[in-house]
Amino acid sequence: MIKKNNKNEKKNLAQEAYNAIRLKIFNNGIKPGQLISESLIAEELGISRTPVREAIRMLAIEGVVESRDGIGTIVKMFSFKEIKDIFEVRKALEIIAVKTSINNVSELEVSELLNKYSDISVRFEAGIAEEREFTEIDMKVHNLIITRCDNDYVKGLYNSIGLKIKLYQYVSYLNFRSSAESISQHMEILRLIKNKELEKLIIALNEHIDWSLKWYLEALM
């Protein structure tokens, strides 16, 4: 329940609602193409619909949600051009980031992620892995590359498109045919980070992001 005794109550409630909706979208609680219910969210948070409406407006400005006449507000499904543009920016940011983060990522961090991939690979083969598990661990790999870099501008720019990246990852993993290859590619990226092989890592990261774009666009067809 959101407390309503703050000085700037209206502004604070809108921000709280924004954070709550954003987190729900990030965790696939509201999926791409799905309707956002103002009344349901307001009820969940224990507030009026006014700050929820303002929060949705903030998300619309970010390009995460959009209004459809006669339907309401939905989590946005991106066009081919929008996806290509996001991938182009994402790739540039990650390649800049990895040039310094390769020296800042610990062996323990790499080992923990490799172990998670080994585990999910076994469960994938057994048919008991879920798409959210793939998106969560993949985001951890790419976020590690960003958060451990020395460039604060890269971190800020990546954060601004992070939710959009998560949304298209969810859609791409609905096509499970790509999951085994994705696991293999991410494990190779982690091994190259661990071994400090920067030139090979840049090539592998570049190829992986191009491959991800291909699979995402095919998942939309």
From TrEMBL:
Native organism = Clostridium malenominatum
Stretches assigned to the HTH gntR-type domain: 11-78
Q: Which keywords belong to this entry?
A: DNA-binding, Transcription, Transcription regulation
Q: Which SUPFAM superfamilies match?
A: GntR ligand-binding domain-like (SSF48008), Winged helix' DNA-binding domain (SSF46785)
The yes or no answer to whether the keyword DNA-binding is present is yes
Q: What is this protein called?
A: GntR family transcriptional regulator
Q: Which CDD domains match?
A: WHTH_GntR
Keyword Kinase belongs to the record = no
